[in-house]
Amino acid sequence: MKIENFFTLLSILSIVPVTFAQLRVGFYNNSCPSAETIVRNLVSDEFKSDPTITAALLRMNFHDCFVGGCDGSILLNSTDSERFFGPNLSVRGFELIDEIKTELEAQCPSNVSCADIMALATRDSVVLAGGPNYNITTGRRDGLKTNASGVFDLIGPTASVAAFLSFFGDKTMTTLDAVALLGAHTVGVGSCGLFRDRLTNFNGTGLPDPSMDSDLVAKSTPLTFDNAFFGQIRARRGVLQLDQRLATDEATSSVVAQYAADNDLFKRQFAIAMVKLGAVNVLTGEDGEIRTNCWEFNKN
């Protein structure tokens, strides 16, 4: 992508409206004025003791929205729910969402959806880690079904860049959005099982992945939301295979270079992409429900 085209498209995306369908900023201003403050305070308390909660909530949010839409279905705690299949087995942060929901039910019963709690908590954790503070549209309702089989369609760490862009494109995400969202890997740590083969037995060769810097050392800032991730993958220090491919594939390499050079640009585009992500297949109005417990459907 040419630099001038990149900035032109970025300028267009920067004016994405803050209202999608029936979602809007400040949805709870009248019905539960303290809602966003309650979420923010409880996330802040958690962040003080566990700053890795930012990475946990981002992952939870992505995995919810990319399987059936942003409807809180990942929070359901039953043996046949999304929560207990495939990559979701390592998703965490559920206790914080439940804690927030308990407080909101005490203040504003049956008012604030679990899907909105997740979106707000994720944003607040990103801000605490040094990331962008962006407006969150609210008004989502919680889903009435779970899609465990859909969990296996989530993009994996060894996917090709073409598959990655197609996966995000199906959710109306541009290349700029997709690369910015994967920049969330700038916070947190990865399970060794996701990249062990790159270190010791790449593609069955018994050798390391030749695209990885042989002198790879820990020079990242895993608790700070910044653009360090992009500099790392440009230096062949990407841990996950997909991450590394972004820096060399012609479809994404110029975007990676732009984000690596401009932290503010990355944060700005990440915020735009998160707002778009939060509107994927949402339930609003009379659809779905407002769960009284995030981990189970309401009892009729």
UniProtKB/TrEMBL annotation:
GO biological process: hydrogen peroxide catabolic process; response to oxidative stress
Binding site for Ca(2+) 1: D64, V67, G69, D71, S73, E82
Ranges for domain Plant heme peroxidase family profile: 22-298
Catalytic activity from the UniProt record: 2 a phenolic donor + H2O2 = 2 a phenolic radical donor + 2 H2O
Residue positions of the active site: H63
EC number annotated for this UniProt entry: 1.11.1.7
Keywords for the protein's UniProt record, in alphabetical order: Calcium, Disulfide bond, Heme, Hydrogen peroxide, Iron, Metal-binding, Oxidoreductase, Peroxidase, Secreted, Signal
Cofactor note: Binds 2 calcium ions per subunit.
Record flagged with keyword Disulfide bond: yes
Listed cofactors: Ca(2+); heme b
One Pfam family in the UniProt entry: peroxidase
Keyword Heme set for record: yes
One MF annotation (Gene Ontology) recorded for this entry: lactoperoxidase activity
Role summary: Removal of H(2)O(2), oxidation of toxic reductants, biosynthesis and degradation of lignin, suberization, auxin catabolism, response to environmental stresses such as wounding, pathogen attack and oxidative stress. These functions might be dependent on each isozyme/isoform in each plant tissue.
Family recorded in the similarity comment: Belongs to the peroxidase family. Ascorbate peroxidase subfamily.
Name under which the protein is recorded: peroxidase
Organism: Arabidopsis thaliana x Arabidopsis arenosa
Species lineage: Eukaryota, Viridiplantae, Streptophyta, Embryophyta, Tracheophyta
